[in-house]
Amino acid sequence: MTQALGMVGMLCVLAASLGRHATAAEEEPLLALPVPLMTVVKTPKAPTIDGKLAPGEWRYAASTPGFLNLADGNLAAEQTVVSMTYDEDRLYFAFECLLTTERSPAVSESRRDRGVWGDEALELFMQLPGHEGNEFYQFVGNSIGTIFDRYNRDKSWDARWQFAEDPRPSTERGGST
């Protein structure tokens, strides 16, 4: 299990999406870029999934900034930092969205497995090593806690996962580590 989790972690495709849903790779050349790899370290203690990034809680996690705007290929104006770790049973992701203005994300979808990706939302695509094409997992969550998940094209598939958020502007959160 640990080896499989480590491989999933290294080959994850992360897409932090702010309001725009990516189309298929053949329609969107930027999605055909090489997938960056990242070494992910096992954590001795699982982080609390509460929407807050407590000091030191993610110290064993690998982190990456530098997400692209899929519309034009440039660095996104509003950056996101993603941290990832795992334990014996689960993968953990933390997203810190750094908005350029002190505002709350624009959201409207409140129904599970509906158009959450149309909101300013966090979106994660994962593909296991050796699996190509349309075999993937997709997870989306917005700042009011609405989630969407699917396996391949099956929107009726529901994963057992937790999503928590802290929609306050970063100055009200006091920053995070």
Report the strand count.
7
Largest sheet report: 4 strands, antiparallel
Which structural category do the helix and sheet elements fall into?
A: mainly beta
The CATH architecture can be named as Sandwich
**Low-confidence regions:** 1-25
Separation of the first and last Cα atoms:
28 Å
> Rough shape?
globular
**Helical residue percent band:** under 10%
Explained architecture:
The chain has 177 residues and is mainly beta. It has a single domain, classed as Immunoglobulin-like (Sandwich), CATH 2.60.40. It is 7% helix and 21% strand. It contains 2 helices and 7 strands, in the order αβββββββα. The protein has a 4-stranded antiparallel beta sheet, with no helix packed on it. The chain has a 3-stranded antiparallel beta sheet with strand order 2-3-4, covered by helices on one side. β3 (80-86) and β4 (91-97) form a beta hairpin. It is globular, with a radius of gyration of 16 Å. The chain starts with a helix and ends with a helix.
Summarize the structure.
By secondary structure, the protein is mostly beta strands.
Question: What is the topological layout?
Answer:
Blueprint: H1 2-10, E1 13-15, E2 62-64, E3 80-86, E4 91-97, E5 121-126, E6 137-142, E7 147-151, H2 170-173
Antiparallel strand pairs: 1-5, 2-3, 3-4, 5-6, 6-7
For the structure shown, list the relevant keywords.
177 residues; mainly beta; Immunoglobulin-like; 2 helices; 7 strands
